[in-house]
Amino acid sequence: MKDFFEKPPKHDLEVGMLVTCSCHGGLAIVLELYDEAEEEYPGMNMAKIWWIKSSEISESRIWMHTIARLNICSEPLHYRREYDKIL
């Protein structure tokens, strides 16, 4: 949890991007980024994601995740392979 309150790293993430992470595996979509300070909260190392496929069993597909550990899926064929595994 304390990692969320660290200074957000420089990144190229945008809402709607497909990502993986270095800690859970799986495939997710970025729903929101909290890296820029707002009136309600400071800039944080935090993103809201929705798991398309997670390696962990969880009741919720929506997670808060550290930005620093998210990786953009850059290979279009990778998307298709992951999507085919889900179906």
Determine the N-to-C terminus distance: 33 Å
Largest sheet: 5 strands, antiparallel
Order of helices and strands: EEEEEH
Mean pLDDT: 78
* Strand segment count: 5
Strand order of the largest sheet: 4-3-2-1-5
Q: How many structural domains does the protein architecture include?
A: 1
**Structural class by sheet pairing and helices:** alpha+beta
CATH fold name, please?
SH3 type barrels
The helix content is 10-25%
Shape: globular
CATH architecture: Roll
Key words describing this protein structure:
five-stranded antiparallel β-sheet, alpha+beta, SH3 type barrels
Give an overview in words.
By secondary structure, the protein is an alpha+beta fold. It has one domain: SH3 type barrels (Roll). The chain has one helix and five strands, in the order βββββα. It has a five-stranded antiparallel β-sheet. A hairpin with a 5-residue loop joins β1 and β2. The termini are far apart. The mean pLDDT is 78.
